[in-house]
Amino acid sequence: MFCSTVSVHLNGIPFGNVVSYSDGPFENSTGVPYFYMSALDPTPKDLAIIPYASLTVSEAPLGTCGLRDVEDPTCAKITLSGQIHLLDKDAQALEFAALALFSKHPEMKDWPKDHNFNFFALKIQDIFLIDWYGGAQVLSVDDYLANIQHSSI
Question: Mind telling me which Gene3D superfamilies this protein's record contains (predicted)?
């Protein structure tokens, strides 16, 4: 999955970075992406100055696109855009983010402590979905969140 920011280290040029994410543990998906990123990574540095980002996820890694190209409109892809913020003051949000991420990415628990990893969440403001021919659909955030049926994004 790719997270794109406005790059501080590249003087405002867009920057895309591969990120792992989770929207909740397997039995409690929320639709809200959570991230675990190192202070050494350029993405959190960008977000500290300009908090806007986009997360793009494709259906292709699930294997359900068959031999179709990842860009084929029938191989669904969604872009969630908004502000990614550091979860540093809300103990309940931190606990949920840790559960969400470590349940799906257990190796994260063992990543080096001296790399200063922190939890982040995307406050979704816009949703762009392509899942068929005829162009993209813009989904409302309320409809998207209301239709999460305990399946992971």
Answer: Electron Transport, Fmn-binding Protein, Chain A
Structure tokens at 88: 């540093």
Q: How far, in whole angstroms, is CA 116 from its chain's centroid?
A: 19
Q: Is the pTM of this model over 0.85?
A: yes
Strand partners, 124: 82
Torsion angles phi and psi, residue 31, rounded to 5:
90, -15
Partner residues linked to 14 by β-bridges: 6
For the chain, the helix, strand and coil percentages under 3-state DSSP, each to the nearest 5: 25, 35, 40
CA dist., res. 80 & res. 135, Å (int):
17
> CA 152: distance to chain centroid?
12
